[in-house]
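<instruction>
Derive structure tokens from the sequence
<data>
Labelled lines for chain and fold
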Amino acid sequence: MPDLSTRVREIRAFDSLAAGKTVIHNLNPLTKILSTFVFIIIIASFGRYDFIRLAPYLFYPFVVMALAELPYKLLLSRILIVLPFCLLAGITNVIFERTTAFTVGSIAISFGVLSLATIMLKMYLCVMAALFLIATTKITDLTKELRRLHIPMIFVIILEMTFRYIGVLFEELYSMATAYKLRSGSKKGVNIKHIGSFLGQLLLRGFDRAERIHTAMRCRGYTLYQVAPRRRKISGLDIFTLVFVCFMSILFRVM
């Protein structure tokens, strides 16, 4: 139960963060999308043993967090979700690649360990860049800009609907779990014989509330295939930010 309430608060926290007024929040969404895209592509282009060459890119998350005043604890909790997948992807390297790459004092570092560390660092940088984009850009501004860039509509709709309704699903789950606990006395969790009906009710309640939300959105003029309005004017700061991020990212790549 505390875990569910925490998840709901974390989901809603990104909405609050995106409404900030810092210099990063005020950048044109197009600038942030292109900067994030270039940064992630360049990070992904590094080889499996390029841990040292990736280290300079740590400037990006620290600078953005400071300028955007983002809470590191919240972002770190999102990264921990991806951590098990990266460990599964890189743990076999530690087992099979035992040749020594270099030594630190008397400790030998194998190519497998170096590969795992590189995977973890690449994951950290890419996920942080994506989280910065979400945490400093309202979802409506983000999807409008994606439509202007002619991203396939189905991907934009999936992103928009997932972001809007994942919070609804967790809120309904938290409400049902609270009601179940109050009626089950001291028992923890949902009894196995009630799982089927519990999930069925969750699905029905989630659909019902999502339909009401969607109806309210349509009453306010929302359509899935709405035409994006005219793009916001790009300022000198937007151009400088995009050029700086791209230049520094490419510079560290070719060094």
